[in-house]
């Protein structure tokens, strides 16, 4: 039986790792990116060649419903169905809240939280009609406990966590699971602004003693997909014991 997935923020980091992991497991893919379309297309060609799957790519801003909803609808049309929706796209903003502009605030909230609404609104009805599906939201431990100088990011991810719990209750009677992964410090470009010394100091604070590899988040996504459908509305921490 054909298996399909739609992944946002798929050109690099966690999203790229998830795309590779699902491709290895036979999923046909719709991959979204904001600007790295050449990188995404190269990944799509590689996955198609290696795993003989269909891969469709989309470039645009998931913070813009005028792009996101039509793109999701096109992916649904091309793939025939979406079994798994992975909301991974996200941006960070570091600085004092009082120094943050309204536009910067809106950009973080719309990219990290509103995009989850847009994709879910576009894809969930088809899952409900088939009484099957998985929505997996990539969140952050800061959405649970908050981080100084990352108020907008923390607020957006806290919103993702609450969205996950609430939407899971809406969709549970229709056999659709909604869960979130609260990531710890993952070794991606988002943490690229840290110096080697800062990374070493941060790693010492993590009980496991290292950053998370993006592939470990991808493996967690697959484990959620393969979990019993009774598991829904869960906020699953993958943070090396940090919180």
Automatic annotation (TrEMBL):
Protein's GO biological process: monocarboxylic acid metabolic process; steroid metabolic process
Organism: Pseudobutyrivibrio xylanivorans DSM 14809
Record keywords, A-Z: Lipid metabolism, Oxidoreductase, Steroid metabolism
Family, per entry: Belongs to the short-chain dehydrogenases/reductases (SDR) family.
Molecular-function GO term, any one: oxidoreductase activity
Transmembrane segments: none
Record PANTHER family: 3-OXOACYL-(ACYL-CARRIER-PROTEIN) REDUCTASE, 3-OXOACYL-[ACYL-CARRIER-PROTEIN] REDUCTASE FABG
InterPro entries reported for this sequence: NAD(P)-bd_dom_sf (IPR036291), Sc_DH/Rdtase_CS (IPR020904), SDR (IPR050259), SDR_fam (IPR002347)
Domain of life: Bacteria
Entry keyword GTP-binding: no
Protein name, UniProt field: 3-oxoacyl-[acyl-carrier protein] reductase
